[in-house]
Design goal:
The chain is mainly α and 368 residues long. 71% of the residues lie in helices and 0% in strands. Helix 1 runs antiparallel to helix 2, helix 3 crosses helix 4 and helix 5 packs antiparallel against helix 12. The longest helix is centred in the N-terminal third of the chain and has 59 residues. It is found in: Cell membrane.
Length: 368
């Protein structure tokens, strides 16, 4: 009653043993593919972590630099500006990780929160009435009167270009893991598991437990079994090219590191622009939001000297070099894996599974 290992000679197999063999080949094939995938998956997972650490290091550096700007140059508003600064960098981090947000909304929300502080602490430092309604009016007015000139829009443009590639790379790496995981659990067809039993276990039914399959026979069976996985070859090659493109984009004109490290300067220029246009802004705000109460003896905003440079350059250089090195290492490794899905049958037939020398081997019907 054998269904797979039918042979003219007497046999020591039963139908139940054939069923056990089919379960065994399915288990072994999954384990073999997992073993092949392990290094590739390990590299991608490792680089997801490494890239994320490098991104976070650069974001922390840029955030510290921006906070230092307020503490050094704009001390009257430094304490209140801390929360908007923190929110801005949290939003950027979430954007890189793939959250449903935009760079534009994050940056403009920051400037909306910044304007009431700039207006009441720098342009009109004597204002005492900063009620919720008045603050909200200032926030909404920011969008109409554009107190920060072109600097807010320029910051959106610069960051959008550089962060886009980082966001896409982060998403692409996660997609790579998903593809690899899916191929590990690709179900074997009934025909495939029967072919694998015939190749690996039918010799046992003749008592030939040390005979292994012939190389050509193994390749034919594996290519048939893994046809659906091999079809990923063209898309995998395209995927590697996309990773290469994204890593080059990050390192080229849309340089993430330079955009982040220059944020403090853009914010500084935006605040200076608002201060220079203080009288016109005050006139417009008074019309829209009304005149707030002032205390006697106004502080002069001329006393505030903006910083031109903030230290910590060493931290930035290290984070920049670290990210560049990781990009190079990663893409060089991934380029070597271009043929991963095209050569999967050959790799599974390598090693102990088949007979490599000129000795006798199993061709599916007999020993040759």
């Amino acid at each position: 009653d054998l269904q797979i290992c039918q042979h003219r000679a007497p046999t020591c197999c039963t139908k139940k043993m054939e069923e056990s063999y089919q379960a065994a080949v399915r288990r072994e094939r999954t384990q073999s593919i997992q073993a092949l995938n392990f290094e590739l998956k390990y590299m991608i997972v490792g680089h997801i972590t490494a890239f994320q650490e490098a991104f976070e290091s650069l974001l922390r550096f840029a955030e510290n630099r921006t906070s230092s700007l307020f503490e050094t140059a704009y001390r009257p508003m430094a304490k209140e500006a801390a929360e908007p600064v923190k929110e801005l960098f949290t939003d950027i981090s979430l954007y890189i990780l793939g959250a449903e947000t935009t760079v534009e909304s994050a940056v403009l929300r920051f400037f909306d929160s910044l304007f009431p502080l700039v207006y009441s602490r720098l342009i009109n430092p004597g204002i005492t009435d900063l009620s919720e309604d008045y603050t909200e009016c200032l926030r909404l007015t920011r969008q109409d009167i554009n107190p920060f000139g072109h600097y807010s829009k320029s910051m959106v443009t610069e960051l959008s270009k550089s962060l886009w590639a980082s966001r896409m790379l982060s998403r692409a790496l996660s997609l790579g893991i998903e593809v690899i995981n899916t191929t590990e659990h690709a179900a074997l067809t009934k025909e495939c598991s029967r072919a694998l039993v015939k190749m690996q276990y039918c010799p046992h039914c003749q008592g030939l437990t040390l005979i292994r399959p012939c190389v050509g026979y193994c390749l034919n069976v594996m290519r048939g079994c893994l046809a659906s996985v091999s079809e990923l070859d063209a898309q995998w090659r395209e995927y590697i090219s996309t990773l290469e493109y994204l890593t080059n984009e990050m390192a080229a004109s849309h340089d993430l590191e330079l955009a982040l490290s220059g944020m403090w300067n853009s914010i500084n220029e935006a605040i200076l622009h608002a201060q220079l246009n203080g009288p016109q802004l005050s006139a417009t705000v008074d019309k829209v939001c009304g005149q707030p109460r002032h205390q006697e003896g106004n502080l002069s905003s001329a006393n505030i000297v903006p910083v031109k440079e903030v230290t910590e350059a060493q931290t930035f250089v290290m984070a920049h070099a670290s990210l560049n090195n990781k990009r190079r290492e990663f893409i060089n490794y991934m380029k070597r894996s271009r043929t991963f899905y095209a050569s999967i049958a050959e790799r599974l037939c390598d090693g102990d599974l088949v007979m490599r020398d000129r000795s006798t081997c199993w061709n599916g019907e007999d020993v040759v």
